Please model this.
Amino acid sequence: MGASTSVTTKVVNQITVVIASRNRADVLPRTIARLRALPDRPPVILVDNGSSDGTPYRIHRAFPEVRVAREPAARAAVGQLAARLPRALWRRRAPRPAVEAALARLDDAQLWHGYFPDGPGSGPRSRPEVGRLARG
Model:
């Protein structure tokens, strides 16, 4: 009684793209540039799995808006787990906040066409090259 309730509003992006990579500094700029050129400009998170070629640094310099999370090399070596991570683990690995209606996991060399004609979740069936999509 008499207690006030406060409601916090978060901005929810339709899709956040998470890319897992290791030693792909030569390939990633093309992939990220393609994502940044899309009309909806989805937020991009790079999960670097222990690169030794300067991938995180080069991506941060070329694309300062891309959030970079670094996995220790020891953890990365335990199976290159990026493409096989369950949705909940991907969300924990990504820097905060990763708030979205859907989370798209992309290979570091995969090009994404960036739209889902019937809304989030319709892409994998209609566009297999998009890859797997996890609903939030």
